[in-house]
Amino acid sequence: MTKRRTSRSPLGGALRRAMTAMARAGLRAGGRMAGEVAGSLAKQAVDAAAARLRPPPGPGDWITGQAIGAGGARRYFLFRPPGVSNAERLPLMVMLHGCGQTAASFARSTRMNRLAVQGRFLVLYPEQDRRVNPQGCWDWYGTVTRQAHAEASTLMAAVDQVCLLYPVDRTAVAVAGLSAGAGMAALLGTLHPERFRAVVMHSGVAPGAAHSAVSALAAMGGRREPELPAAAQSLPPLLVIQGDRDRVVAPANGIAAAQSWAAAAGAAAAEPRALRRGKRHPAMVTDFKLKKRLVASLCLVEGLGHAWSGGDARQPFSDARGPDASKMAWAFVARQLDR
């Protein structure tokens, strides 16, 4: 039996050669495309890392450091105004960023460094480790696990280190924060009241309102009341800045923070006063005083969401239309330093 041979048409061979060539070209193009995508992603990662370290604009020094405490190691950045000598002793403002922010972006948002140049004080910006919290949130609520206290201990280690290495007046230290940073700032004020002359909370939850991640969500929704420690009578003065359209931290939290701080000291609320500056969002300010001593002040900003009031609109969680929270914060601190 003879074997039948199948002849191949010239057209079929040409089609096969064309398909093979197209496949090889596609693979080469895919390789180049994959390389371009990988290169682009690598560049984005490098740019993001560089942005985290890039100093905010303006004169002065942007100094990098690291502190180690019970909560592990945390990087920090210190802003030092130009011309500061080691013979001086300057106030220190500790600024705690919120979730989704870095130390550098918070500095750009608040523009606190500009005020530091004018008012001649140092600014410390601790930064949360994204390996500890991927969103960059400070643990202001983990009091049952003691993680909140551990992070607070590390932050105090940063304050102590800066006070040791730089010309800081240890009796003139204040702490401020936004969102999770506000909750941590208030926690530091209750754990170490003797170390801070003033506390500033912007859009945060007061200590004792939450003890776990689950209860933190309820507290942020305004469904839990703060519980200050028994020794709260000695707390430093508190400024609360809160937007009435905050959809992340319910406005009730700001009100409860100021009221609980005042109640712990036996302070009474004065008559609210209106604050309006140009076309910025208006606000109502209520002071809580014990005799003539200011215990707490609540600034409720109309139309403000979950953002730093008066901050740089190009930065996350900033609203340039609000009254300048940085100026309010430093003015509040400066008044306490003058006492």
Describe the structure.
The chain has helices at residues 10-53, 103-110, 112-119, 147-165, 180-191, 213-220, 251-265, 325-337, and strands spanning 61-69, 72-80, 90-96, 122-126, 168-178, 198-202, 238-243, 268-269, 273-275, 283-290, 293-301, 308-309, 318-319. It is of the alpha/beta class. It has a single domain, classed as Rossmann fold, CATH 3.40.50.1820. The strands form two sheets. Strands 1, 2, 3, 4, 5, 6, 7, 8, 9, 10 and 11 form an eleven-stranded mixed sheet that branches. A two-stranded parallel ribbon has the order 12-13. Strand 6 (198-202), helix 6 and strand 7 (238-243) form a beta-alpha-beta unit. Helix 4 (147-165) crosses helix 5 (180-191).
Q: Helices, strands, pairings?
A:
Elements: H1 10-53, E1 61-69, E2 72-80, E3 90-96, H2 103-110, H3 112-119, E4 122-126, H4 147-165, E5 168-178, H5 180-191, E6 198-202, H6 213-220, E7 238-243, H7 251-265, E8 268-269, E9 273-275, E10 283-290, E11 293-301, E12 308-309, E13 318-319, H8 325-337
Parallel strand pairs: 3-4, 3-5, 5-6, 6-7, 7-11, 12-13
Antiparallel strand pairs: 1-2, 2-4, 8-10, 9-10, 10-11
Helix pairs in contact: 4-5
* CATH level-two architecture: 3-Layer(aba) Sandwich
The whole-angstrom Rg is 27 Å
Q: First CA to last CA: what distance?
A: 116 Å
- Helix and strand content put the structural class at alpha/beta
Residue stretches low in confidence (pLDDT < 50, at least 5 long) are: 1-8
Described by strand count, sense and barrel closure, the largest sheet is:
11 strands, mixed
- Give helix % range: 25-40%
Share of β-strand residues: 15-25%
How many domains, in number, for the residues?
Answer: 1
Name of the level-1 CATH class: Alpha Beta
Q: Count up the helices.
A: 8
Note the run of SSEs as H and E.
HEEEHHEHEHEHEHEEEEEEH
